[in-house]
């Protein structure tokens, strides 16, 4: 078991991951809601930097072992919460304004520390094997791989782990579990490069009790029963569009699945007691889906789209974004007797769909630019609502 790492300077930490790039990530987890336990492994194909060290993010995770290309590897982990600030900034506090400034400074420092990888994996620093000149020329002509890519030192990192404490990022309430990764919390349930600029494709496998449904990012390829006694069910998803780790979402519960009547790529999911309201609420969504594709002259960026609705007492926020999947609170669902809520609900669902283009597929280079994507999503939503209401009036 790795011991907490001693404090290092910020420059040293930043250098550890300056050139590492995740090419692909696989995540295989077993989820036991009764015991509030999540365990499994992840595999990352990583282009290793020259110093041979790959830095990942992992908070509240128990790392059991790490291998690189099948061989045991040394690793060190240091919790972010152990990097405490000095008390110097509090010495000048003499009023409410100065206290607010000091608290703001501490908060910003905490956010900056979270950017620093805290799981360091020592990979061998051997250069990639040279590619024969004739093969390299053939690869280039076929357009499948450039010469610079072929010379990268790509390693397969395998990490066995389990979640030590379910505190944030994952939320469990009775027989419902869901994730919320928006503020760099993907690291709280799987090791990753939790950076919005690091994007890759994902293979996802989730094993749950036989009576539960695991809804996640990507396209559901198939589901199989395990040989356990009693048998459990494994859901296999594939995300073929590169996305940041923060957009990998998961919801597990005894859900009811309601396929969209107009498009088999759209799926609506909720708990059984909300199913009548769900059927009444989501019938318009295909109109928004079609309008966005026509307005933007481009197809939906992901292979499928899933809406998951959970009870408000279980939700952390009214909308949790994920690639190809959004998690909403069921408060916005309504039955046929309620007409006042119709427009407000349709705006919220249409906005969540618009964010798939502007926010998930297209991301901001820096947090300061996020306002632009939010504005574009609202502009797209507004264009649909005006057309939708105009057509209804006609």
From TrEMBL:
The answer to whether UniProt assigns keyword Transcription to this entry is yes
Q: Which family does it belong to?
A: Belongs to the TAF2 family.
Instruction: Give the matching InterPro entries.
Output: Aminopeptidase_N-like_N_sf, Peptidase_M4/M1_CTD_sf, TAF2
UniProt keyword list: Nucleus, Transcription, Transcription regulation
A single BP term in Gene Ontology: transcription initiation at RNA polymerase II promoter
TM helices/strands, residue ranges: none
This protein's source sits in the domain of life called Eukaryota
A GO molecular-function descriptor: RNA polymerase II general transcription initiation factor activity
- Cellular component per GO? transcription factor TFIID complex
Cell compartments where the protein resides? Nucleus
Please report the name of this protein according to its UniProt entry: Transcription initiation factor TFIID subunit 2
Q: What is its main location?
A: nucleus
